[in-house]
Design goal:
single chain; 168 residues; mainly alpha; two-stranded antiparallel sheet
């Protein structure tokens, strides 16, 4: 599976060391792609960037600018995911890496990374919102024509404050 960032991008833009096991990086990248990136971007917009990474398709200037922000956000989320995966499960039970920092330090670092990632995510969504016309994959309804009239149906809302009967 191809991801939107590479191992070298991750290690050069975050605190992840370049000698980190590639398998751990791949696990974190997969987790972040499925749980964070695809839901944020929507499947159509994610596919635009995935096609760019795999096939080398060209992007518009606005797509490139957004892609840079997405890559950095993904790197931050991956770093946070790797901090969450300090414990491993094997046939001898749960084990911890030999030279792990104090959990207070790890939690502080995770919160710091999460705060930075939240700012970048807010910037991504703001950029998408301010450039709606350039991202029809993210805003599919903006490319549809506006309805000229309101629907013929309209119904009210009923608030039922009557007594409730529950049976056991």
């Amino acid at each position: 599976m191809k991801y939107l960032i590479t191992d070298s991008y991750l290690t050069s833009n975050t605190g992840v060391h370049k000698d980190t096991d590639a398998k751990l990086i791949r696990v974190a990248l997969k987790q972040v792609t499925i749980a964070d990136v695809k839901p944020l971007l929507s499947q159509p917009l994610y596919e635009v960037y995935e096609t760019h990474v795999t096939s080398g398709t060209t992007l518009t200037a606005k797509q490139v600018e957004l892609f840079d922000q997405i890559q950095y956000w993904m790197a931050l989320r991956t770093e946070r995911a790797m901090l969450s995966n300090l414990l491993t499960i094997n046939n001898k039970g749960v084990t911890q890496e030999e030279h792990v920092a104090n959990m207070d330090i790890v939690n502080f670092k995770r919160q710091e990374i999460e705060a930075n990632a939240s700012v970048v995510k807010k910037n991504i969504l703001g950029y998408l919102q301010s450039n709606k016309a350039d991202f029809p994959e993210f805003f599919p309804e903006s490319s549809k024509p506006e309805p000229t009239s309101t629907p013929a149906y309209s119904s009210g809302i009923v608030f039922d404050y009557g007594p409730k009967q529950y049976f056991m």
